[in-house]
Write a structure and sequence with these properties.
The structure holds 3 protein chains of 3 kinds. By secondary structure, chain B is mostly helical. The N terminus of chain B is likely disordered. Chain C is mostly helical. Classes of the chains: A alpha+beta, B mainly alpha, C mainly alpha. The interface between A and B is large, with 50 and 59 residues.
């Protein structure tokens, strides 16, 4: 028994070296991406803005309306936001004036006017659960606004 | 009840030295694997990077050979560990300026997935990742960028944790070297170990429990947002709101207190030993890790030098009775190198008490030193390259 | 299972709960309980930051932890009922009006933080109860004060399941059926707390008591910050 334990101990100790080499090499060469994609892990919508649920074409550019984000671990928060983005950046007009249907019921819930050159926006809420504008951002190849919302289902 | 006895009058116990030819032979795996560093630098084509890569490759291998020849681990480990910590901001902060124009994280950077993953986020992201398959950190999940991709960090963390447990904290952590540096500046502590209440060693576990629960509740990485002192040497949120200013003030105070002042006064790694929740989490991996540290009760003279000097408070009187340190041991080898009786050694669990400590030491050094030489070495290479750029061109930016 | 339960219950709008006849008492019990089961994980997530450090810090046996849990849940129910009664008496909309909820919640959070700090810093074992003074003696004289107080203040945090239950309970039914709905809902949510007393199995790990207390203080700092933010949020 003692010999078995010692054998196991030495075997594990010897294997520790190739284990760490393999894991580190797999990490730096991008093999870890396979693991991440296989598990379906995603960055929290609070940071990414959530999935795009509707796209509205305007010729050279398009409007991407993301889903409303109220995510928490097991429940929905009482307040959240919606991200609306316009892309591509180089095709955007100097001024965007658009009504947005946030909850997909076919009715506009707010209007946003964006000065694309100066990254300034104004918000006109139509629904009582549309609160205010969080900010205007250049994200990758899009210009986006985040509008704070109160959860309409609560 | 312990009795203090004077160390033997005989000359200090010799460290387990090794013949030069043996050391060179044993260095071959490290030499070959760490050759990737100069190879990567050659790929870049940048002369300064090539010089840095070669210099680092030579440095890490010379240090490894010296470690084996002299039998001293902590001395050389500590130097490299401190170099890694200093090199990181030398490279990372200019990279932030090159990529985002600032070391400050704006909302745009965060929403674009530009925050760099660091392993300290692991305790907070685990629960939401397991329950909802969601990573509550605004970083990039996949890709082969040079800084902080989640997939890379996750594999690195898992591999290190399984191989060397909490050895991460003394052989891999990008930040611990700051703590170590300031803890080694004074010759004697101003606050002695008996003046420090031993219950503080449980604070990191309390912080760990709290941040896991609160991060799951708030869906935010609360330690990163509020408590991590090392944002000072990497990246932090822009002071665009009063809240952000408060957060910045907190982490600056924590850095000054836990990383500079208290280590100076105590000669201990206060942030690592008495605060860091990631270290607390890694302590659990010590339980399943095959390596350990052993105190030979027959050789131990109960002088308690190891207890007085352990940088992370991982030794106490009970350790001397049980023959092993607490689960918070970071395997830094400070006690191993400094025990006057040579009573403390690395060990492999399951092996007999009479097993060769040299074999255990070498088998431990391979994974630990590879981590330090490869990941840490690359960090030093990048930092050195920036330094050379500053000297030759007056700028650290590409 | 929780998704199925919540789908079944949430589709039943208050009016459709048919609380008007005594024969529907079984339906009320079942719906309340299922809603509780559906949303109990949320309750656990809200309560765990307070309850887990507390149970660890107490270092009591599993059997004693059941009593502690019972006191906590009782306090939590008290918090729910208080808020529910106020809403019933005034206007249920106060539950949704953030102008009213925010300051109430802010004060509750700060009180919760204070209690957690008192627990983490002041609370000592009862062996030397006779010699203790001030807050320590007080806490040892009324040991139920802490778990009940913590539960009550946690219950004042009007969490999403409570809002759903309140919406369900204040439908068009009679008062006793509303209370029945609410009570069975509460039982359903409490199901998820069952594993927590088993933390007592680790009571022999002495450091866990210290760790629990440290965690309680850290959690207290979070609630203190959250409470202050709710009270003065516009400034920040």
């Amino acid at each position: 028994m003692e010999k078995l334990k010692a054998f196991f101990g030495y075997a594990m100790a010897v294997l520790a070296f190739p284990l760490i080499v393999v894991m580190i090499m797999a990490g730096v060469t991008g093999l870890g991406d396979v693991f991440v994609e296989a598990t379906g892990l995603q960055t929290a919508a609070k940071f990414t803005g959530g999935e795009v649920v509707r796209t509205v074409g305007h010729g050279a550019y398009e409007t991407r309306v993301h889903r409303m984000v109220f995510d928490a671990l097991f429940w929905e928060r009482s307040e959240g936001f919606i991200q609306v983005a316009w892309a591509p950046l180089d095709a955007l007009p100097a001024r965007i004036d658009e009504e947005i249907d946030a909850d997909g019921d076919g009715q506009a819930d707010f209007r946003v006017e964006v000065d694309t050159a100066n990254k300034e926006s104004t918000l006109t809420p139509y629904a009582s659960w549309v609160l205010d504008l969080e900010g205007t951002y250049r994200l990758n190849d899009t210009l986006a606004v985040r509008v704070r919302l109160r959860n309409p289902s609560r | 009840m312990t009795t203090e006895t004077q160390p033997s009058d005989q000359a200090k116990v010799q460290s387990p030295r090794m013949a030069v030819w043996k050391a060179l032979l044993l260095c071959l795996p490290i030499l070959l694997l760490s050759a990737l560093i100069p190879l990567l630098s050659l790929q870049s084509g940048d002369p300064l990077m090539i010089i840095s890569g070669l210099a680092v490759w030579i440095l890490v291998n010379v240090f490894f050979v010296l470690m084996l020849i002299t039998g001293k681990t902590h001395r050389y480990r500590s130097v490299l560990f401190i170099m890694i910590a200093i090199a990181l901001p030398l490279d990372f902060i200019p990279w932030m300026f090159e990529t985002y124009g600032s070391m400050l994280l704006t909302d745009e950077t965060i929403y674009s997935g530009g925050a760099s993953f660091c392993p300290l986020t692991m305790p907070m992201v685990i629960v939401p990742a397991l329950v909802k398959r969601v990573v509550i950190f605004p970083g990039t999940l996949v890709g082969t960028g040079t800084h902080g991709i989640f997939s890379m960090m996750a594999l690195l963390w898992l591999g290190v944790s399984l191989s060397i447990g909490r050895g991460w904290c003394s052989w891999g952590c990008f930040y611990g070297g700051w703590d170590e540096f300031f803890s080694r500046l004074r010759k004697k502590p101003l606050i002695k170990h008996k003046q420090i209440d031993r219950r503080w060693i449980y604070l990191p576990f309390g912080i760990l429990l709290a941040i896991v629960l609160i991060s799951a509740l708030t869906y935010e990485p609360v330690y990163c947002a509020w408590l991590c002192p090392f944002k000072l040497v990497t990246e932090f949120q822009a002071p665009a709101t009063t809240l952000a200013i408060i957060q910045i003030a907190i982490f600056i105070l924590l850095f000054i207190g836990l990383v500079i002042v208290l280590p100076l006064l105590t000669r201990r790694r206060i942030q690592c030993g008495l605060f860091c929740p990631f270290g607390a989490m890694q302590s659990f991996f010590n339980k399943i890790n095959i390596f350990g540290v052993r105190i030979d009760p027959e050789k131990c003279s109960r002088c308690e030098k190891c207890i007085r000097e352990c940088p992370t408070f991982s030794l106490n009187e009970a350790s001397l009775d049980s023959g092993k340190p607490l689960m918070t041991c970071t395997r830094c080898a400070h006690c191993i190198d400094n025990c006057p009786q040579g009573a403390i050694t690395y060990r492999i669990k399951g092996t007999s008490l009479k097993a060769s400590p040299t074999v255990a030491r070498v088998l431990y050094l391979y994974p630990a030193y590879f981590l330090m030489a490869f990941i840490g070495g690359a960090t030093i290479m990048n930092g050195l390259q920036r330094l050379l750029m500053l000297i030759t061109t007056g700028s650290m930016l590409h | 299972m929780t998704r199925l339960c919540s789908d079944v219950i949430l589709r039943a709008k208050p009016g459709r709960l048919r609380l008007g006849t005594a024969g529907k008492g079984g339906e009320v019990i079942l719906q309340g309980f299922l809603l509780g089961l559906a949303s109990g994980t949320t309750c656990l997530a809200y309560c765990a930051p307070v309850l887990v450090p507390f149970l660890l810090g107490e270092g009591q046996r599993v059997r004693q932890n059941w009593a502690v849990l019972g006191k906590f849940l009782g306090g939590r129910l008290g918090g729910y009922l208080l808020f529910g009664l106020i809403a019933w008496a005034v206007n249920r909309l106060i539950l949704e009006d953030s102008g009213v909820r925010a300051p109430v919640l802010g004060v509750a959070y700060i009180a919760l933080a204070a209690l957690l700090i008192v627990y983490g810093v002041v609370r000592t074992p009862t062996a030397c109860a006779g010699e203790l003074k001030g807050a320590r003696a007080w806490l040892n004289r009324w040991p139920a004060l802490l778990p009940v107080g913590l539960g009550f203040l946690t219950g004042l945090n009007v969490c999403p399941p409570f809002l759903m239950a309140f919406a369900g309970a204040t439908g068009t039914g009679t008062l006793w059926q509303s209370l029945l709905f609410f009570g069975t809902f509460f039982l359903g949510t409490s199901f998820y707390f069952i594993p927590l007393p088993f933390l007592g199995a680790f009571r022999h790990v002495q450091p866990l008591r210290t760790i629990g207390k440290f965690a309680a203080v850290i959690v207290a700092l979070y609630y203190l910050f959250a409470g202050v933010l709710l009270l003065v949020g516009d400034v920040l």
